[in-house]
């Protein structure tokens, strides 16, 4: 009874029959929501940017459909080379400092008693409750001449006069580290927390003093966390423009600022798109090279 | 001069604070001497303090009171990496980011042994544990039994004074476990290294050990060779924990030398047995009789130490028949060996059948009641 019913259905809807019998069709159907999602939200916008980067700017800042490769040749100007190089430098510096500051913190949280651990992780996430811009303004209040930091240091007789930190590369670095540190700590924590305590005991048992236990066991086993953290920090740090804008004054210009300026101030969308493409390619090359280089952690990445 | 004892624990206490804030003595005034070249087992159920004792020797814990001696010297707070003992962990604790070879070489690298020497010694020990040709694999690519061998090789390559094994066979299936038991034992005899073996499996302990310490609630209840532990338990706990036994309640009537006469309450009958611990006339005692040591007979030769019973249940298990008897209101289990091959159902005890039990004084152990 049921069989005849389904057979009738199959006759009426041949597509259903194909799907039921064809494994490839089944697979395609099942993966299509993800594919549609990827196409609409990633491939399509990306293609738009690629196309845009080869078009021309109209007189009033509009986009003219005329092929124009000069957007890319304009980027060969040494000034942009310098900005790109400086952006890379800031990105790498931010990442390295985040690792150096974040590692001990993540290690401490991972080794804390289970009950304190969730509280500490919670504290790492608390800043996200406040708007990013407001937190940056808070830093401006702290760092500005005659601000909180100056007051405290003078009160403690450590310095005299203002440090004049705000609107310097140092201020930008402070802002960058402040913003990206949680993205380094969380993946580091998750890979450190996974390291079984018995492994550290085993290393000690085999004759390794604590510092060697760290170098030979803890550090290599936390490589997946370092890689994940680096990707999460380095990529957005490369494209960051808010912090250099607000905390670096006009003095510190990163590639992110260039792109933003082209889109919003100069109204040269094609040139901004070209700069975005360069940034993306650069990021991809850098990330690929980095993950390959740190390859011995690859099979540990879940 | 080195001591006769590889390891000595003198009145060692280790206290922990429980999450509720109470103090708990995981190891409670333990004293034991482990001889050089001995296969010594610590046997007990979980939480008896056996693993903590092992960790005290390894240096992962420090005693609250008392002192641990390694090679005759008090070891104090010497950290694990400076102790001449090595551990095989229950979870194996292999380094997943290193190959089999690198895992085994780790301990030698820490000692600063030369590369050539490391390669020679690692090769030798991998051959010994039958892992030749596996040196480039990662631990994840090995079976449980092979991982166990890597853990063993990694500790043995350092030629420790004492090898500490924390339930190393716990994760293996039964057949592999039996094989590894024999292999470990022969390895130990071949190398002459002192093994301290922690297990909750009494059969494992009986099979491999020269001596066994039976532990419960942080205390050593009895220490001695397997035969002594099984045949002459000194406490009710040990008699119960090792193998199976029948317990009868009674009162001591008289004591002569190591033998004692006990009146069994349930039967109002006197039994003669061996008192393994100190008892006096008038003491309440427990009498332990192993089920395989009771003989079933058609007619008693003498009335002394003989009792009549009725078969309640009889289970054929191949080598033996497990017979449960009602002896004047007390259930007694008897393992009757199937010495003659037959398929005739009448040859086995059946429910309701009357039979005599013969108890010899040597098989009757009198223990303090506790």
Short description:
The complex is a heterodimer of chains A (302) and B (370). Chain A is mainly alpha-helical.
The gyration radius over C-alpha positions of chain B equals 25 Å
> Which superfamily, in CATH terms, is the homologous superfamily of the largest domain in chain A?
MetI-like
CATH class label of the largest domain in chain A: Mainly Alpha
Number of DSSP-assigned strands of chain B: 20
Q: Could you say what the CATH topology of the largest domain in chain B is called?
A: Rossmann fold
Q: For the record, what CATH class of the largest domain in chain B applies?
A: Alpha Beta
* Number of helical regions of chain B: 8
Summed up, the domain count of chain B is 2
The CATH topology of the largest domain in chain A is what?
MetI-like fold
* Mean pLDDT over the full residue set of chain B: 91
Unreliable stretches covering 5 or more consecutive residues of chain B: none
Please state the average pLDDT score of chain A.
87
User: How would you name the CATH homologous superfamily of the largest domain in chain B?
Assistant: P-loop containing nucleotide triphosphate hydrolases
* CATH architecture identity of the largest domain in chain B: 3-Layer(aba) Sandwich
- Biggest sheet layout of chain B: 6 strands, mixed
Task: Walk me through the structure.
The complex is a heterodimer of chains A (302) and B (370). Chain A has helices at residues 2-12, 14-21, 23-53, 70-74, 78-111, 114-125, 132-143, 148-155, 169-193, 197-205, 210-221, 223-239, 242-247, 255-264, 269-293, and strands spanning 56-57, 63-64. Chain A has 302 residues and is mainly alpha-helical. In chain A, strands 1-2 form a two-stranded antiparallel sheet. Chain A is flat. Chain B is α+β, with helices and mostly antiparallel strands and 370 residues long. Chain B has 2 domains: 5-236, 3-Layer(aba) Sandwich (Rossmann fold); 244-368, Nucleic acid-binding proteins (OB fold (Dihydrolipoamide Acetyltransferase, E2P)), CATH 2.40.50.140. The A-B interface holds A 196, 198-199, 201-209, 212, 216-217, 220-221, 223, 296-297, 299-300 and B 58-60, 79-82, 86-87, 89, 91, 93-97, 106-107, 110-111, 138, 154-155, 158.
